[in-house]
Amino acid sequence: MTIQDELQRLFDEYVAAYRVGNAAGCAAIFTPNAELYSPYGPASRGRGAIEETHAAWTQAGGENKQIEVIEAGQSGNLAWCLARCSEGDATGDGTSLNVLERQEDGGWSIRMCSLNEDR
Fold first, then answer.
1. CA nearest to 85, candidates 30, 28, 11
2. Tens place of pLDDT for every residue, the chain, 119 residues?
3. Could you tell me how far CA 100 lies from the centroid of its own chain?
4. Which 3-state string (H, E, C) describes 44-68?
5. pTM for this one?
6. How many Cα atoms occupy the beta-carbon half-sphere of 1 within 13 Å?
7. Measured between alpha carbons, how far is residue 98 from residues 22, 28, 34, 59 in Å?
8. Residue 41 in contact with residue 56, Cβ under 8 Å?
C-alpha cells in the first residue's frame, strides 16, 4: 500500500465521522498536541480544541463532506499530504496541507493541518 493510500484511508475515517457529526471521531485522527489552522475560525491547538472546533463545524451538517488525497510523501516517521476538500455550497471547496506522524501502532495521525478555501 502506498503512503497516499494509507493517508486516504485515514481521511476516509475522518469523513465518515464528520458526516455523522462525530466531533470526537474527527479529533481522534489528530495527535494530542496537533494544530489546526483554518479560514473558518481561530487556530485550534490540542485535540480538545480541535474537537470543539469540529463540534461547531459539524452542527451545520456535513453529509456531503469529501476529501481526496491528491499528493503525499513520507520520510521515516513523518508524512505530508495535500488533500482536496469539498463540503458543498455551505462551505465550498478548498485544500488542506497536512503533516502527519507515525504512531506506535503503525498508523498515522495529523500533527499540523492548514486549511485553505478556494475563492
1. 11
2. 999 999 999 999 999 999 999 999 999 999 999 999 998 889 999 999 999 999 999 887 778 899 999 999 999 999 999 999 998 666 678 999 999 999 999 999 999 999 998 86
3. 10
4. EECHHHHHHHHHHHHHCCCCCCEEE
5. 0.93
6. 8
7. 21, 15, 11, 24
8. yes
**Per-residue model confidence (pLDDT) at position 102:** 98
Give the three cell numbers for residue 79: 508524512
pLDDT computed for residue 77 by the predictor:
98
How many other β-carbons are positioned within 10 Å of the β-carbon of residue 88? 13
| DSSP letters for 87-104 | --TTT-EEEEEEEEEE-T
Sketch out the chain's domains with CATH numbers.
3-117 (3.10.450.50)
10-40 burial by CB neighbour count: b if 16+ within 10 A, else e?
Answer: bbeebbebbbebbbebbbebbbeebbbbbee
Q: Which residue shows C-alpha cell 495529523?
A: 110
